[in-house]
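Need tokens for this chain, all 338 residues.
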Amino acid sequence: MKRILSVIAFLMAFLFVMAGVSLSSETINGAGATFPYPVYAAWAWQYKKETGIRLNYQSIGSGGGVRQISNRTVDFGASDAPVSPEELEKKRLYQFPAIIGGVVPVVNIRGIRAGKLRLDGSTLCGIFLGRITSWADERIKALNPALRLPDKRITVVHRSDGSGTTAIFTTYLSAVCPEWKKHVGAGKAVRWPAGIGGKGNEGVANYVKRKRYSIGYVEFAYAKQNRLSYVLLKNRAGRFVAPGFKSFQAAAASGDFSPERHFYLWLVDAPGKDAWPISGASFILLAREKKSSNLKTVKFFDWAFRKGDEIAKRLVYVPLPESLKRRIRKYWREKGIY
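Here are the structure tokens for all 338 residues:
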């Protein structure tokens, strides 16, 4: 009997290893934002290949990430909406940025290719408020005199879950549109005046892909992966810019991330002639008392800061500047994390 049990235990261990499931503590569990999921997944694959340590990241939205780390059910949470210093103190959390990207409006209009449709903040606001309801509206046509726009009803697609992507998008709309700020406001979840909801960046991308004459907003990597038509947006400098590495980097260059405030910062409506106006950082949240899991987590992100930049660039995310990486490492040391 003892021998049989030993054989069963051995076979179970073998099956777990073959399935890629760690039997030891060499697994890092995180949850949160869908915005950075493509790059975290790519980093995790390479990190496991080099170290044998597995990162299990649940792409459940920023609201879920903040909730799970606040409840101490994961090693780290991830949120695209930075948590305020006051809330971090209340929840006993640390925070640092990991990557920078951009939220992009995407459309499904026959004959309109990526980068051809131009919108500004006011017009985008009118669409999501439900006040501009046709693609042939004069306000859209005035921005696009060379395009043949169909007289078709616009279907608005937004997030249905608590979302940092939504927080970035609605913070931008609040910054450029007083009507949005007054009637809707900014946050991970808002009362949408119009449209249908999709869960995660994946859900919004799938809805836009299937629904003709729709418009939604997703992190740029999802637009690229799903071959969605992104729009050009007028930025604060008055220029129509395309989403991409250069314009996200230009927005990131304007940011002054302060370790004294746990790097709390929004990058929307950034100055600079090339800046993409709906840019943002994605943040990592750690429970202050979880020293062992915090060490595992920051070892992963330290590896990503050293070796993950090229992977991030291939997926059209902007790696953090080296000066910011140094500030983050100093923050880790001062907090006794690393």
